Structure formats: C-alpha cells, structure tokens
Amino acid sequence: VLDSARELGGFALDRGNTALAACISRKLDWLTDHRRIGYSQWCADPEVFMKRAMGQPGF
User: Fold this and answer.
1) What are the DSSP calls for 23-45, one per residue?
2) Which domain covers residue 52, as residue numbers?
3) Radius of gyration over alpha carbons of the chain, in Å?
4) Is the pLDDT of residue 57 over 70?
5) What is the dihedral of CA 4, 47, 40, 55, to 10 degrees?
6) Handedness of CA 29, 34, 39, 44 (dihedral sign)
7) Residue 19 in domain
8) Which of 5, 32, 38, 48 has the smallest count of CB within 10 Å of its CB?
9) Ramachandran angles phi, psi of 28, nearest 5°
10) Is 57:31 a contact under the CB 8 Å cutoff?
11) Residue 5: pLDDT above 90?
12) Is 37:48 a contact under the CB 8 Å cutoff?
C-alpha cells in the first residue's frame, strides 16, 4: 500500500563537480536499465533495483 504523502526527494551537488554528476547519471542509467525500469516495476517488485545492483560486481 502506498502512502498518500507526496515525496519530492533529491539531493544537491556542487555545480562544478561535473565528474560526479556524470558518474551518478551513468549509474542511474544503468540501474534503471536506461529508464526501462521505473515506478510501476518498483511497485510490483520493491527489490528490483537491489536485485539489479547485486548482480553487478563493483557497482
């Protein structure tokens, strides 16, 4: 059951740290299978991202 609270989430990076931003972007692209794994897949299987990450040594 999903709660009704709205969550915006997020975090901040130093705008000059483009290497970190690019690294995070690459990792998120991989973790979400280039946005093919999204909210509906996560609702159906809350472990979907953990399963994907555990299958990738050195992630």
Assistant:
1) HHHHHHHHHTTTTTS-HHHHHH-
2) 33-58
3) 14
4) no
5) 150
6) negative
7) no
8) 5
9) -65, -40
10) no
11) no
12) yes
SS3 content of the chain, % helix, strand, coil (to 5): 45, 0, 55
Domain assignment present for residue 5? The answer is no
Query: Any idea which of 5-9, 10-14, 21-25, 55-59 has the lowest mean pLDDT?
Result: 55-59
Task: Report pTM.
Answer: 0.67
Calculate ∠ Cα 12-6-28, nearest 5°: 45
List the structure tokens of 54: 């555990």
Domain count, the chain: 1
The pLDDT tens digits for 13-53 are: 999 999 999 999 999 999 999 999 998 999 999 999 999 88
